[in-house]
């Protein structure tokens, strides 16, 4: 096994920012808005770096797809302990319609090229909330997948994954190479220290084009319209349980 | 969306920091502030003290306390522009007291030690301060001497290989929690600018009395002490650099102190403007949002303009400084403007919050109280004006 782990990191609007819909309803305002690494991607990076620190794997490669700015996100992964980065160049225009299927194709191609033993991704991105890329990537590669991982144990030739599922926790054992997606409780990502941020400046980021990987970016999906969630209406106060039941019947709820 | 939108972050098409360090602003500084500091600020403001040892250790582990300090003592050996970048991020803390306390640790109590201290002194005091293991404070101002530093009365009299210290210090930020003080004292009877020395003073020595914690109108999460020295004995090797050079050493770091203070104030001013916009957008008066009244959005535009002007001055002065230029005039101008703009901005924005602005539940009223100090501490406005006039050659001869 190569001992190499590929970690996908996505640049998203920071979780603390108040999202505004563009006046033309084509999307949300991203211009000049604070961006950072997708929180689940941070957890994925942390897990890979911990594996390296435990000497279970040899190299952590951080990958991001997008325009020039995603290099900042790759640098953050390097500051957290990734060894090198790959920037898959996608123009700003193409990035608007870039979705999980294209990213999965890119990651699958890279995993083969880099002879990766593991791909670790965040379970979903906080902008798209798709929760598809990990699963699609595994399917394209015909690799096993351990999604919604809250605990990962890497052993020779396989991985034990504890998954967070609706009913509780499920433990599975899958062979490597495999795709894992990180859930919230997998770990607590380290703060990138300033010394490591400065060291990360010297680590290499390679530039790759999707065409070099044989990937077509054209999307079969088109976003028609983006709207804000409906404003929360005022509630109604009732005096008694009977009133409550009456109102619910009126509203056709029961 | 699993993560709920909570804090308000300023939006701007222009990168706000002097240095953009991928991983630092968003994933490191913002996270530390957002997770370890801001959730507790209201409580610490009410209690009158933040836990300096705990917070400084977290910052020390992140490498934030020794940005421009020597690598041999745990620092990063970077130039001052990186210190400014860190200071800009600290403006995201929802009070003025904690950034101020951090600034004392990083850019007021330690620069002279880093530059002129002996290896032994640096190992004992600088290294742990950068690591966040020891809390530092600065002992310069006294009850009888603030702006007029040369008239301080604290004496350190040489006896054998010790100094015996008598006197007191005032306005000592971190004073009730500090492990050591960078103390300025008279060590001889010579001319007032040449008879003072900087001494590394452990705060647990017999004779050091924390007389009281001062009850201040603002900066309430920063503990400020009045300290007395009663025959305190300290080894003479604890003098930083040369005896008699203390006054000069302190003056050398004023440019950095002042630019550092401006940096975090700018970020907080951005936040206050943005929160005022958000509040007045949803608050209705006479059937329309407060923000829609021209006097309101025009005034906020004026204030934001002034913030950007001051930001440009800060970045210009910093760029010149790291190339080795003397930026005393620009730094003094920036400090002067920061104090005055913060007061103006706090006052104007608070007005638009109406009754809510007068409560202690909002950031704008805390900013109004905290920022009043900027025109007083770290060099009063009048001192800044005197310096600028000296450079303009307009002082009476």
Automatic annotation (TrEMBL), chain A:
<comment type="subunit">
    <text>Heterodimer composed of ETFA and ETFB. Identified in a complex that contains ETFA, ETFB and ETFRF1. Interacts with ACADM.</text>
</comment>
<comment type="function">
    <text>The electron transfer flavoprotein serves as a specific electron acceptor for several dehydrogenases, including five acyl-CoA dehydrogenases, glutaryl-CoA and sarcosine dehydrogenase. It transfers the electrons to the main mitochondrial respiratory chain via ETF-ubiquinone oxidoreductase (ETF dehydrogenase).</text>
</comment>
<dbReference type="InterPro" id="IPR014730">
    <property type="entry name" value="ETF_a/b_N"/>
</dbReference>
<feature type="domain" description="Electron transfer flavoprotein alpha/beta-subunit N-terminal">
    <location>
        <begin position="25"/>
        <end position="217"/>
    </location>
</feature>
<comment type="subunit">
    <text>Heterodimer of an alpha and a beta subunit.</text>
</comment>
<dbReference type="InterPro" id="IPR033948">
    <property type="entry name" value="ETF_beta_N"/>
</dbReference>
<dbReference type="GO" id="GO:0009063">
    <property type="term" value="P:amino acid catabolic process"/>
</dbReference>
<keyword id="KW-0813">Transport</keyword>
<dbReference type="InterPro" id="IPR012255">
    <property type="entry name" value="ETF_b"/>
</dbReference>
<dbReference type="Pfam" id="PF01012">
    <property type="entry name" value="ETF"/>
</dbReference>
<dbReference type="GO" id="GO:0033539">
    <property type="term" value="P:fatty acid beta-oxidation using acyl-CoA dehydrogenase"/>
</dbReference>
<dbReference type="GO" id="GO:0005759">
    <property type="term" value="C:mitochondrial matrix"/>
</dbReference>
<comment type="function">
    <text>Heterodimeric electron transfer flavoprotein that accepts electrons from several mitochondrial dehydrogenases, including acyl-CoA dehydrogenases, glutaryl-CoA and sarcosine dehydrogenase. It transfers the electrons to the main mitochondrial respiratory chain via ETF-ubiquinone oxidoreductase. Required for normal mitochondrial fatty acid oxidation and normal amino acid metabolism. ETFB binds an AMP molecule that probably has a purely structural role.</text>
</comment>
<dbReference type="GO" id="GO:0045251">
    <property type="term" value="C:electron transfer flavoprotein complex"/>
</dbReference>
<dbReference type="InterPro" id="IPR000049">
    <property type="entry name" value="ET-Flavoprotein_bsu_CS"/>
</dbReference>
<keyword id="KW-0249">Electron transport</keyword>
<dbReference type="GO" id="GO:0009055">
    <property type="term" value="F:electron transfer activity"/>
</dbReference>
<protein>
    <recommendedName>
        <fullName>Electron transfer flavoprotein subunit beta</fullName>
    </recommendedName>
</protein>
<dbReference type="InterPro" id="IPR014729">
    <property type="entry name" value="Rossmann-like_a/b/a_fold"/>
</dbReference>
<keyword id="KW-0496">Mitochondrion</keyword>
<comment type="similarity">
    <text>Belongs to the ETF beta-subunit/FixA family.</text>
</comment>
Automatic annotation (TrEMBL), chain B:
<keyword id="KW-0285">Flavoprotein</keyword>
<protein>
    <submittedName>
        <fullName>Zgc:85777</fullName>
    </submittedName>
</protein>
<keyword id="KW-0276">Fatty acid metabolism</keyword>
<dbReference type="Pfam" id="PF00441">
    <property type="entry name" value="Acyl-CoA_dh_1"/>
</dbReference>
<dbReference type="InterPro" id="IPR046373">
    <property type="entry name" value="Acyl-CoA_Oxase/DH_mid-dom_sf"/>
</dbReference>
<comment type="pathway">
    <text>Lipid metabolism; mitochondrial fatty acid beta-oxidation.</text>
</comment>
<dbReference type="InterPro" id="IPR006089">
    <property type="entry name" value="Acyl-CoA_DH_CS"/>
</dbReference>
<dbReference type="GO" id="GO:0033539">
    <property type="term" value="P:fatty acid beta-oxidation using acyl-CoA dehydrogenase"/>
</dbReference>
<dbReference type="GO" id="GO:0005737">
    <property type="term" value="C:cytoplasm"/>
</dbReference>
<feature type="domain" description="Acyl-CoA dehydrogenase/oxidase N-terminal">
    <location>
        <begin position="27"/>
        <end position="129"/>
    </location>
</feature>
<dbReference type="GO" id="GO:0050660">
    <property type="term" value="F:flavin adenine dinucleotide binding"/>
</dbReference>
<keyword id="KW-0809">Transit peptide</keyword>
<keyword id="KW-0274">FAD</keyword>
<feature type="domain" description="Acyl-CoA oxidase/dehydrogenase middle">
    <location>
        <begin position="137"/>
        <end position="232"/>
    </location>
</feature>
<keyword id="KW-0443">Lipid metabolism</keyword>
<feature type="domain" description="Acyl-CoA dehydrogenase/oxidase C-terminal">
    <location>
        <begin position="244"/>
        <end position="390"/>
    </location>
</feature>
<dbReference type="InterPro" id="IPR006091">
    <property type="entry name" value="Acyl-CoA_Oxase/DH_mid-dom"/>
</dbReference>
<dbReference type="InterPro" id="IPR037069">
    <property type="entry name" value="AcylCoA_DH/ox_N_sf"/>
</dbReference>
<dbReference type="InterPro" id="IPR036250">
    <property type="entry name" value="AcylCo_DH-like_C"/>
</dbReference>
<dbReference type="Pfam" id="PF02771">
    <property type="entry name" value="Acyl-CoA_dh_N"/>
</dbReference>
<dbReference type="InterPro" id="IPR009100">
    <property type="entry name" value="AcylCoA_DH/oxidase_NM_dom_sf"/>
</dbReference>
<dbReference type="GO" id="GO:0003995">
    <property type="term" value="F:acyl-CoA dehydrogenase activity"/>
</dbReference>
